[in-house]
Backbone:
């Protein structure tokens, strides 16, 4: 039986972060479950591409300053 090859880990660009990047960020205040919960509720801005979740760095920094990030809605 052939085993499905795993895709190699590709680091996120400097403009976006993954959940793993957030977990490794010093001082990140949320647990992994809390982070996914914030993404699901829309409190943490994110972009989903397939199964990959990306967090725009600019939007995250805006959120951490206590401001509400601007979001674009699909038309």
Residues:
């Amino acid at each position: 039986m052939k085993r499905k090859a795993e895709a190699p880990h590709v680091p996120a660009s400097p403009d976006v972060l993954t959940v793993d990047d957030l977990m490794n960020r010093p001082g990140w205040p949320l647990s992994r479950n809390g982070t996914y919960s914030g993404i699901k509720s829309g409190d943490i801005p994110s972009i989903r591409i397939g199964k990959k979740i990306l967090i725009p760095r600019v939007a995250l920094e805006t959120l951490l300053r206590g401001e509400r990030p601007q979001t674009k809605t699909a038309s």
